[in-house]
Amino acid sequence: MKFRLYTKNGCPYCQAAISLLAENQKEFECYALDKQPKLLTEIKNTYQWQTVPIVVEITEGNKKYDMEIKNLSVDKGC
User: Fold this and answer.
1) Which pLDDT band, with edges at 50, 70 and 90, does 46 fall under?
2) Digit-coded pLDDT (tens) for 47-60
3) CA distances for 35 relative to 1, 7, 9, 40, angstroms
4) I need a labelling partner for 62 at 20 to 30 A (CA). Which of 6, 35, 45, 46 fits?
């Protein structure tokens, strides 16, 4: 099971989510979207979640943002 986190720098809840996944030895990707507010808004609307962190289990059906993230300068590795 692999997770993707959409976060903002300096967010204590985001850091807690990262720590929890790491402590439980879960595989995850982390993207800080501070510099991409439009993408963050779209992700919030897609997952119907208006706060960060947004934690998503990566499956074949929810890879919608793979290309957008690969093509943008997003802070990976929170």
Assistant:
1) confident
2) 899 999 999 988 77
3) 28, 11, 10, 9
4) 35
